[in-house]
């Protein structure tokens, strides 16, 4: 039987949204876990990255600079920042993993690697074998190039889950906030804050609750394949208006949403084909959108208080 405490896991970005949940789960399972994150370590500095990943068996590389639509894609400067910071972080971590002969790397990628032009077509569903190349901005390009670097690495087992829209407790707020956090915040503060929905509400996303995301990362850690790349999402296209109406229902308030057509909405349609995840890994999400939104709503309510 494998001694979990002897296998050392590092979670880069372990204080972030996904990383904090992953760290808690690993500790709950009795794993030997080290969190590598700011301010203790700056992974844009190669020497600090080398120091942080000493004596490691498994690396969950989650560290990156990311946020909501405006933060990542609000300007050319935003796109450049996402590329410059995250490409340096990835390259440093991967180089250290190679030099230290680390056994396993789990690198969460993103739906942003898929062709941006297809994301502006209604009903688009993305499969892993899509060969078109046109990622979404600086962040999408970094994730795509991260995947390429890992494909070239030898003697290291690699797992790359392409996650779609993850949401849940510990989501970032402020300028880094995603749509779900913003809608819940507006509902909680209503009527002192207007319940404004960006766009006409018809744009769709594929939402996956945080606990389902963590299940994926734990599963991939325990797989024996040398290389894994697969989509993980709900497999369901959900409109922003459906999210808004569900949040209103949870709030139990008489809220009339205002759809602001002048605000940026990003891609129109982005849904995961999760056939591979179901057939090869016998995986499918457990938490419904309404249940996940209820849990997230309760957390945001506590945070705002």
Q: Please describe the biggest sheet, giving its number of strands, its sense, and whether it closes into a barrel.
A: 7 strands, parallel
The SS-based structural class is alpha/beta
The portion of residues forming beta strands comes to 15-25%
Q: Ends: how far apart?
A: 46 Å
How do the helices and strands follow one another from N- to C-terminus? Answer: EHEHEHHEEEHEEHEEEHEEHEEHH
CATH superfamily of the domain at 4-170 and 207-235 and 271-286: NAD(P)-binding Rossmann-like Domain
Mean pLDDT: 93
Detail the poorly predicted runs.
none
Notes on the structure:
There is one protein chain. Helices cover 40% and strands 17% of the residues. The chain is of the alpha/beta class and 305 residues long. The chain has a domain at 4-170 and 207-235 and 271-286: Rossmann fold (3-Layer(aba) Sandwich), CATH 3.40.50.720. The strands form five sheets. Strands 1, 2, 3, 4, 5, 7 and 12 form a seven-stranded parallel beta sheet that branches. A two-stranded parallel sheet has the order 6-15. The mean pLDDT is 93.
Which labels suit this protein?
globular; single chain; 40% helix; alpha/beta; 305 residues; Rossmann fold
Layout of secondary structure:
Blueprint: E1 8-12, H1 17-28, E2 32-36, H2 46-52, E3 58-61, H3 69-73, H4 76-99, E4 104-106, E5 109-110, E6 125-126, H5 137-152, E7 157-163, E8 165-167, H6 179-189, E9 196-198, E10 204-205, E11 207-209, H7 210-221, E12 227-232, E13 238-239, H8 240-251, E14 258-260, E15 271-272, H9 275-281, H10 289-304
Parallel strand pairs: 1-2, 1-3, 3-4, 4-7, 5-7, 6-15, 7-12, 8-11, 9-14
Antiparallel strand pairs: 10-13
């Amino acid at each position: 039987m494998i001694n979990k405490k002897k296998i050392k896991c590092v979670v880069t970005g372990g204080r972030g949204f996904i990383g904090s949940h992953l760290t808690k789960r690993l500790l709950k399972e009795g794993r030997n876990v080290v969190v590598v994150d700011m301010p203790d370590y700056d992974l844009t500095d190669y020497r600090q990255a080398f120091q942080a990943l000493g004596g490691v068996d498994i690396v969950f590389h989650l560290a990156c600079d990311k946020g909501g639509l405006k933060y990542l894609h609000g300007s050319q400067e935003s796109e450049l920042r996402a590329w410059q910071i995250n490409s340096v972080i990835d390259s440093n971590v991967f180089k250290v993993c190679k030099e230290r002969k680390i056994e396993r790397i789990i690198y969460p990628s993103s739906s942003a690697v898929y062709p941006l032009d297809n994301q502006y077509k209604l009903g688009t569903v993305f499969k892993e074998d899509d060969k078109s190349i046109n990622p979404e901005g600086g962040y999408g390009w970094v994730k795509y190039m991260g995947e390429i670097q890992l494909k070239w690495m030898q003697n290291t087992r690699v797992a790359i889950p392409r996650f779609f829209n993850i949401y849940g407790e510990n989501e970032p707020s402020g300028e880094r906030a995603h749509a779900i956090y913003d809608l819940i915040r507006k509902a909680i503060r209503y009527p002192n804050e207007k319940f404004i929905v960006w766009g006409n509400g018809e744009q769709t996303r594929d939402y996956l609750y945080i606990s389902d995301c963590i299940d994926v990362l734990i599963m991939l850690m325990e797989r024996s394949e040398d290389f894994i790349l697969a989509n993980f999402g709900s497999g369901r296209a959900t409109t922003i208006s459906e999210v808004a109406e569900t949040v209103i229902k949870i709030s139990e308030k008489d809220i009339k949403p205002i759809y602001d057509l002048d605000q940026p909405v990003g891609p129109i349609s982005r849904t995961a084909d999760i056939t591979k995840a179901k057939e090869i890994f016998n995986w499918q999400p457990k938490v419904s959108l309404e249940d996940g939104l209820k849990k997230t709503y309760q957390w945001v309510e506590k945070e705002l208080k």
